[in-house]
Specification:
About 40% of the residues are buried. The chain has no helices and 16 strands. By secondary structure, it is mainly beta.
């Protein structure tokens, strides 16, 4: 069963010009509401924002909310009997988020929040019971995280501008907390 949907009640664009939404849900018991097994909620306010949600299994939630101009968010989820949960919120100009979750049997969860301009966040979770909270406040910051294996946990906050990342790669049963503050 394959469905490509352009949703207004769940994929809402408010006071927007030239915003784009693309939602794909593939799998059994996949519908555009929590009762059907998967949910995708995209709300965009501003201009030229683009939100994409791609869900390949039942039991996924998604959510992309963007306010501002020329923000881009791509969220992809698959696998997991209990599903995956992801949330991307971006406020500002030219922020980019790429979030990918692939679970084998159990769920992963992720939250990315970006406020400012020109921030880039990338998160890939491959395995079970991985979690991430990534927050950037400021301009031109970069975060890259790859969680492979099971039971990884990261909390990463950046406040400031032009903060370079350490690229983080986790390979199982790891917990990491990073807090960066500064301006370059």
């Amino acid at each position: 069963m394959t469905a490509a949907l352009l949703l207004m009640p769940l994929g809402t664009q408010v006071a927007a010009a030239d915003n784009g939404v693309y939602i794909t849900q593939v799998g059994d018991a996949v519908a555009a509401s929590p009762a059907g097994g998967s949910a995708s909620v995209v709300t965009q306010a501003g201009e030229r924002n683009y939100g994409q949600v791609d869900q390949k299994s039942a039991g996924q939630i998604g959510v992309v909310a963007q306010a501002g101009i020329e923000n881009y968010a791509s969220l992809s989820q698959s696998g997991g009997v209990e599903g995956n949960l992801a949330l991307v919120l971006q406020n500002g100009v030219g922020n980019q988020t790429t979030l990918e979750q692939n679970a084998s049997t159990l769920s992963n969860n992720a939250t990315i929040v970006q406020n400012g301009a020109g921030n880039v966040a990338s998160l890939a979770q491959n395995g079970d019971q991985n979690s991430a909270l990534m927050v950037q406040n400021g301009d031109n910051n970069l975060m890259q995280v790859a969680q492979n294996g099971d039971n990884n946990n990261i909390v990463w906050t950046q406040t400031g501008s032009n903060l370079a990342q350490p690229k983080v790669e986790m390979v199982g049963n790891q917990t990491l907390s990073i807090h960066q503050l500064g301006f370059k």
